[in-house]
Specification:
This protein is of the alpha+beta class. It has a seven-stranded mixed sheet, sandwiched between helices. Strands 2-4-3 form a three-stranded antiparallel sheet. It contains twelve helices and ten strands. It has two domains: 83 residues; 238 residues, Bira Bifunctional Protein, Domain 2 (BirA Bifunctional Protein, domain 2). The model has no long low-confidence stretch (mean pLDDT 92). Bound molecules: 3,4-dihydroxyphenylalanine (DAH). 3,4-dihydroxyphenylalanine binds next to strand 9 and strand 10. Tetramer of two alpha and two beta subunits. Keywords: Aminoacyl-tRNA synthetase, ATP-binding, Cytoplasm, Ligase, Magnesium, Metal-binding, Nucleotide-binding, Protein biosynthesis. Its cofactor is Mg(2+).
């Protein structure tokens, strides 16, 4: 009998319970009236009276152990149950959390749109250096040394020689440098647009920045006239801006074009009635343009008697400002997602 008791001690001590079902099995085997311990108590009657007391004590110890273990196991199973209940329910029918993807920067969107419009009418895309020599940024474009026209564009110099601009290196102030590089290396017909960054020594404010983007355009071939310039830019404005946008060419001056014109469109904000953006005039300037000066064509080794052409240049920030009513240039570089998210899906 004592051996049986010992074996059951062992069994209880090694018992583990991980679920409600196993807890119930434990109860049935050791605690319930039909369990092994009750059976042992019943067996007490058959034991000689002299030993009964000692065995009875052993059995009571066993009964207490079984009860203690049972209490501990039920606590454990309860804890497991509550932690499973407090976990969020999994609803497998829910759509997955959307993958947050970035959006395209408004300047990228507008640059791509401009490229698309010009590519459709036969322009290709060209590129040139941002660190440039004085010759490509100024000299070849007819800015004579010490000419006041150079003051139109406040230049960041990388390397500046006193009294001799020809050796200067600078951050390009416009994308017109790429016109020169193209004409030097290609035979007409040349029909390209050249998007890129430009730099000017300006204090950063809502209206000015020391780094911005331009798109330059050039078309050089036989018999290219001012009408071609007008047609091309009319087409561009019609494609990019709202239907009904008006366009006008206003006489202007650039050292590298003759004649030169600035291109205005009717204000996108007030529709031409007059507002803060257009300074009450109803018109806003979007680009400079003109017929490429024969001297510039000759500077690049092309015969200006055989070839003529037009060129234009526009600021991408400016076009974006008009198209999407962005009133502060600094928004483009601050990376504020509240601003950037507004261009999602455009
Ligand atoms: N380079 C000029 C600027 O930055 C813009 C410009 C005007 C470009 C006339 C041209 C042009 O190609 O023909 O202000």
């Amino acid at each position: 009998m004592l051996e049986n008791v010992k074996a059951i001690y062992e069994e209880i001590n090694h018992y583990t319970v991980a679920s409600k079902e196993q807890l119930e099995q434990f109860r049935m085997r050791f605690i319930s009236r039909k369990g092994v311990i009750t059976e042992l108590f019943e067996g007490l009657k058959t034991i000689p009276a002299a030993d009964r007391r000692a065995v009875g004590q052993e059995l009571n110890g066993l009964k207490n152990l079984a009860q203690e273990r049972f209490d501990a196991f039920s606590q454990h199973v309860d804890d497991q149950q509550t932690s499973a209940n407090s976990a969020p329910p999994v609803d497998l029918t829910l759509p997955t959390v959307p993958n947050l993807t970035g959006t395209q920067h408004p300047l990228t969107l507008v640059r791509q749109r401009i490229i698309q419009i010009f590519e459709r009418i036969g322009f290709n895309v060209a590129d040139g250096p941002e660190i440039e020599s004085d010759w490509y940024n100024f000299g070849a474009l007819n800015f004579p040394d010490n000419h006041p026209a150079r003051d139109m564009q406040d230049t960041f110099f990388v390397d500046k020689k006193d009294n001799d601009p020809s050796g200067d290196m600078l951050l390009r102030t416009h994308t017109s440098n790429v016109q020169i590089r193209l004409m030097e290396h290609q035979k007409p017909p040349i029909r390209s647009i050249m998007p890129g960054r430009v730099y000017r020594n300006e204090t950063i404010s809502a209206r000015a920045h020391c780094m911005f983007h331009q798109v330059e355009g050039i078309y050089i071939d036989r018999n290219v006239g001012f009408k071609d310039l007008k047609d091309t830019l009319y087409h561009f404005v019609k494609e990019l801006f709202e239907p009904g946008t008006q366009i006008r060419f206003r006489p202007s001056y650039f050292p590298f074009t003759e004649p030169s014109a600035e291109i205005d469109i009717s204000c996108q904000i007030c529709g031409g009635k007059g507002c803060n953006i257009c300074k009450q005039s109803g018109w806003v300037e979007i680009a400079g343009s003109g017929m490429v000066d024969p001297q510039v064509i000759a500077n690049c080794g092309i015969d200006p008697d055989e070839y003529t052409g037009f060129a234009f240049g526009m600021g991408i920030e400016r076009i974006t400002q008009l198209k999407y009513v962005v009133n502060d240039l600094r928004l483009y570089t601050e990376n504020d997602v509240r601003f950037l998210r507004q261009f999602e899906g455009l």
